Amino acid sequence: MTALATGTTRAVVRVHRTALIVWGAFIMGAVAYLVWLNEVTAPDARAQMATCKPDAGFCTAFLATRDYAEPMGWISTVVYYSFWAVAAWAGAALIGRELESGTARLAWTQGVSPARWLATKLASPALVIVLGGALFVPVYRWAWSANRDLMGDDWTFNDVFAARGPAVVAWALCALAVGALAALALRRSLPALGLAVAVMIALNRYMELHRKDLWPTVTRTSGTGFEPSNDWWQVENGSGADGRYAVYHPPSHFWPMNLVETGIILMIAALATTASFLVLRSRTARTM
Question: By the 8 A CB rule, do 214 and 193 touch?
């Protein structure tokens, strides 16, 4: 059984070798670009900013944003959505294609059980996703923190919030599981891919709207003597019976919020994975 499982895994890797190479190159390229931004672009931006006139605040802000802050923002956005878009493709399009073409049924007649076939199809891309996240997230955290004077206080941005912690990997694993479930339910690659992406967009949007509720907020009033900070995630503010007030998340809430979101998304991924095996067992029990 061990030899059979190893052979199945090797077959999966061989079939999707090109996709694995492209994904690996993408992650390595993103990491290399982050290093370049911090080691080359940041010093150059500061050198250009030094030529601005003392009262030319616009000049300084423009150079910092154009040369450093914008590229840092774009790389987090691209990687964040690429993680779960690629995972949805791996789950929906690839599994759906094998079901549609009959390749999966052929494998089942060669001594590979349907459950083992699905487990291998999910385990291989899941491992690649986790390894990619293990490389990207620490480098991105270092890059994001290295030159804070050149960037705004943007820890609450959706892509930055996910990319600085394990949530980005959890979203990808969830997309993989949702994609697999869609493929098994529809048994068609393109419809499954469309459904998986639509579900992930809806889930992602819902979580982004309710992310502020993942952890208890802090409330301060003018009676306690506070000044709003740019790095607060202000949920509510205004004037009340006790004067000015602010309801917010301080930066110290990042980790508990990110970990809670990671747990929720992994739970959804686990449910989708369980449902995938149940659907597969139901379908194969009727046809085999």
Answer: no
